[in-house]
Structures are given as structure tokens and as C-alpha cells.
Design brief:
The chain has a domain of 85 residues: Helicase, Ruva Protein, domain 3. 39% of the residues lie in helices and 3% in strands. The chain has 6 helices and 2 strands. It has a two-stranded antiparallel sheet with strand order 1-2. Helix 1 packs parallel to helix 2. The two termini are 33 Å apart. The model has no long low-confidence stretch (mean pLDDT 82). Pathway: Protein modification; protein glycosylation. Keywords: Disulfide bond, Glycosyltransferase, Manganese, Metal-binding, Transferase. Its cofactor is Mn(2+). GO terms for molecular function: metal ion binding; polypeptide N-acetylgalactosaminyltransferase activity.
Length: 133
């Protein structure tokens, strides 16, 4: 999630993005089955999902509902203390995610429309057959 977070910080907080032709920047992902340093005990089964939730909680404002609708299993995920991140956003008077969607990512919804809000969420049970749909 940190790759998204740095972009939101730059765009929403008035930073600058410089293109340096000779620069080499990358992201290293651990290979499946890698047995290196184990994660700390507080990291759940998916540190990647936990990082996404942290980013969504800090930067997405009312748009976070769309993330949780697409990944409902993350709603109960403990993601740790984000108060310093929220304070950074407040102290630097960062713009809203709505601003980001309207000014920076204005064309994203033409390619990936926002789904309608859920009216109800849950399971339906057929009492005659004891089946869950």
C-alpha cells in the first residue's frame, strides 16, 4: 500500500513529482515461499491487505466504502495506529480524496465506474432447503 500512499501524499498535500531520466526506482516483492525474516507477531495473515486498509482509512475519506464493498473481509482487519498519519494529513492541510478523484484521476470512473452503494448486505437462506445463497 505504500506505493499508493506516496502518490496520495504528493498529489493531495501539494508536493511535486519530478521525472529524472537517469533514476532507477523499483519495488521489491518477496517471492512466494521465501523463508526470510518472518513478519512481526502483530502482522496478520496478509500484510499487504493491512497496508491497503491503512491507506484507505487515511486517504480515501468517503470513498473507502467502495474498497470495503469490494473487500468485505478487510472490515474487521486490525490495521494498527494511524493517528500520526491522520495528523500529518491534517497538519499539512491535504486535499480530500474527492478532490483527487475530480482533479487528478478524473477519467478513472469512465474506465472503472463506481458501483452503486449497497442497500443491504448479508446472506439469504432458503428455509425449505437450509441453503445459503
Amino acid at each position: 500500500g505504500e506505493n499508493f500512499e506516496i502518490s496520495y501524499k504528493i498529489w493531495q498535500c501539494g508536493g511535486k513529482l519530478l521525472f529524472v531520466p537517469c533514476s532507477r526506482v523499483g519495488h521489491i516483492y518477496r517471492l512466494q515461499g521465501w523463508q526470510g525474516n518472518p513478519p512481526p507477531a502483530y502482522v496478520g495473515s496478509s500484510p499487504t491487505l493491512k497496508n491497503y486498509v491503512r491507506v484507505v482509512e487515511v486517504w480515501w475519506d468517503e470513498f473507502k466504502d467502495y474498497f470495503y464493498a469490494s473487500r468485505p473481509e478487510t472490515k474487521a482487519l486490525a490495521y494498527g495506529d494511524i493517528s500520526d498519519l491522520k495528523k500529518f494529513r491534517e497538519d499539512h492541510k491535504c486535499k480530500s480524496f474527492k478532490w483527487f478523484m475530480e482533479e487528478i484521476a478524473y477519467d478513472i470512473t469512465s474506465h472503472y465506474p463506481l458501483p452503486p452503494k449497497n442497500v443491504e448486505w448479508g446472506e439469504v437462506t432458503n428455509l425449505s432447503f437450509k441453503s445459503v445463497f
